[in-house]
Automatic annotation (TrEMBL):
Family annotation (SUPFAM superfamilies): MetI-like
Record family assignment: Belongs to the binding-protein-dependent transport system permease family.
Protein name: ABC transporter permease subunit
Native source organism of the sequence: Paenibacillus violae
Swiss-Prot/TrEMBL keywords: Cell membrane, Membrane, Transmembrane, Transmembrane helix, Transport
Protein location: Cell membrane
Transmembrane segments: 115-133, 177-199, 205-227, 234-256
Main location: membrane
Amino acid sequence: MRDNFFAKKRMNTLLFCAFLLVITLIAIVVTDYNVIKGFTSIPKAAEWAASNFYPNEKAMKRLPAIISSLSETILVSIASTAVAAVFALLFAIAGSHTTGVGGVFSFVSRSIATLFRNIDVAAWSMILLISFGQNVLTGYFALFFGSFGFLTRAFMESIDEVSNSSVEALRSTGAGYFPIIFQSVIPASIPQLLSWVLFMVETNIRQATLIGILTGTGIGFLFSLYYKGLNYSSASLVVIVIVLAIFAIESVSTYVRRVIL
């Protein structure tokens, strides 16, 4: 019995690997990708990066401006996530199976969450550029809409995981809709909700770099400016600062998650 189980598992793994190989070969043929040229270009790219893509003394003089732009990017990311979390919680409560009022309200909440979640922040940036132009507000709203869609869906699932026993216990005592939400559902799910918010902050800081390139703001704009100006030393310093900032934020986020969970 045990041998049959492992034999079946190995067969499924082999079939899955064969499927991936076939898909990869089809993609190579369709896109006319030169595999040999792709692999042989890796050493050349590494050699170029080692020779050009590193900060020098001149680039270090631009560090204050880079830090200032990074601070702007981080603050916009945190602000957009925080505001999106508030709206997402309201829509999640309305659309959740545990706390939702049902009917059209639940359907509308879930539909809005699905719509906003499936539009990438880069697409939101391009759409909002038409209305707001290249400024911080465009990046803020792009991150806000993307965060709102993701967090609404994540909050719904977190609230739905709350045990119905406590909800039924409060209902049996005659508790109203809002006391059930604020005294049972939200307190029970708040650690998971905060974890999702922290995850979204980390994600938005990464995405804000790309959005900055599109909207001409923040740290992304500086990277684009230096790189297009062939100032690779300053561009490399921007990358290093972004990586260090992300590591620091992830460390803080991991610590907070460990405390609240």
